[in-house]
C-alpha cells in the first residue's frame, strides 16, 4: 500500500458520544487497524474491502468506496458532508496515528469545521503524534489500564505521549471496570499530574449487552480517589450507544 493511501471503515456525520465534547456534531473518519488488542474492543480487527461513506449528514444513506483511499478522495467526501455544520472533524479508529503519512496529506485538505481537527487516540504512539501535532486542535487520549485491557501496561508510551500532547487542548479518557486496582489508577493519575493538570474522564466499560461493567459505588470510589490529586475528574459513559447513534 502506498504511503499516501489508507484503509478506512467509515466516514459519517454524528454526535460525539464520549468525553467532555459529548453532544457536539462531528464528521467521523474511522481508520482501520490498531496497534493494541484491548479486551473490550468493539471495533472489528479486519481491514474492510470498502469504506462506507454517508452521502448526506445524518441520512444514514451509505455509498461503499473501495479501500485504500487517497487523501483527495477522503477530502472530497468530507467536503460533501458540510464541515461548516460541524463542531470538528474526528480522526478515530482503530488507531488513526498508524496512518501519519496519510494524515499529513489529508488534514490540510479538510478545513472548514468550527473547531478544527479532533484526534481520538490510544495514546501509545508518541513518535507518530509528534509528526502531526501542529495539525490537530484537540486530542482525546486514552490511558489504558491493564486490568481492563488485559494487556501489558503502556505507562512509558503514555508518559511520553502526554508530554507532547499537552501543547494542545487535551483530555485523558480512561475506561474502567469493577476490577481496577488502586495501584493502576494511581499510576495513571501520576502520569497526568506530572505533566500538566489535564481533565480526566472516567468512562465505564460498556458490556456487549449495553450495560456498564462496573457498579455505581466502584465508579464513585474511583472518582473520589482521582479527585484527591486531580482538579477535573468526570464520569461520562458512552452516550451515543443508548441514543442509537453510530
Ligand atoms: S485502542 Fe481502541 S481500537 Fe485499539 S484495540 Fe483498544 S479499544 Fe480497540
From TrEMBL:
Mg(2+) binds at residue 43. GO terms for molecular function: 4 iron, 4 sulfur cluster binding; carbon-nitrogen lyase activity; magnesium ion binding; S-adenosyl-L-methionine binding. Pathway: Purine metabolism; 7-cyano-7-deazaguanine biosynthesis. Binds 1 [4Fe-4S] cluster. The cluster is coordinated with 3 cysteines and an exchangeable S-adenosyl-L-methionine. Its cofactor is [4Fe-4S] cluster; Mg(2+); S-adenosyl-L-methionine. One of its GO terms (biological process) is tRNA queuosine(34) biosynthetic process. Its EC number is 4.3.99.3. InterPro entries: 7-CO-7-deazaguanine_synth-like, Aldolase_TIM, rSAM, rSAM_sf. CDD domains: Radical_SAM. This is 7-carboxy-7-deazaguanine synthase. It comes from Desulfofundulus thermobenzoicus.
Amino acid at each position: 500500500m502506498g504511503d499516501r493511501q489508507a484503509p478506512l471503515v467509515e466516514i459519517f456525520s454524528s454526535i460525539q458520544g464520549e468525553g467532555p465534547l459529548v453532544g457536539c456534531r462531528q464528521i467521523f473518519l474511522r481508520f482501520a487497524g490498531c496497534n493494541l488488542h484491548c479486551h473490550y474492543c468493539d471495533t472489528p480487527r479486519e481491514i474492510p474491502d470498502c469504506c462506507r461513506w454517508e452521502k448526506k449528514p445524518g441520512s444514514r444513506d451509505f455509498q461503499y468506496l473501495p479501500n485504500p483511499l487517497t487523501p483527495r478522495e477522503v477530502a472530497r467526501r468530507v467536503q460533501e458532508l458540510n464541515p461548516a455544520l460541524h463542531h470538528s472533524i474526528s480522526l478515530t479508529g482503530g488507531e488513526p496515528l498508524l496512518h501519519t503519512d496519510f494524515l499529513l496529506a489529508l488534514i490540510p485538505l479538510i478545513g472548514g469545521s468550527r473547531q478544527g481537527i479532533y484526534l481520538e487516540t490510544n495514546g501509545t504512539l508518541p513518535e507518530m503524534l509528534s509528526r502531526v501535532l501542529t495539525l490537530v486542535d484537540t486530542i482525546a487520549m486514552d490511558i489504558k489500564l491493564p486490568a481492563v485491557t488485559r494487556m501489558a501496561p503502556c505507562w512509558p508510551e503514555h508518559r511520553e505521549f502526554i508530554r507532547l500532547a499537552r501543547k494542545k487542548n487535551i483530555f485523558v479518557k480512561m475506561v474502567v471496570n469493577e476490577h481496577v486496582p488502586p495501584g493502576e489508577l494511581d499510576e495513571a493519575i501520576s502520569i497526568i499530574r506530572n505533566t500538566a493538570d489535564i481533565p480526566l474522564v472516567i468512562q465505564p466499560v460498556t458490556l456487549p449487552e449495553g450495560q456498564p461493567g462496573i457498579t455505581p459505588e466502584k465508579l464513585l470510589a474511583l472518582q473520589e480517589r482521582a479527585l484527591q490529586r486531580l482538579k477535573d475528574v468526570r464520569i461520562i459513559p458512552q452516550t451515543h450507544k443508548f441514543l442509537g447513534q453510530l
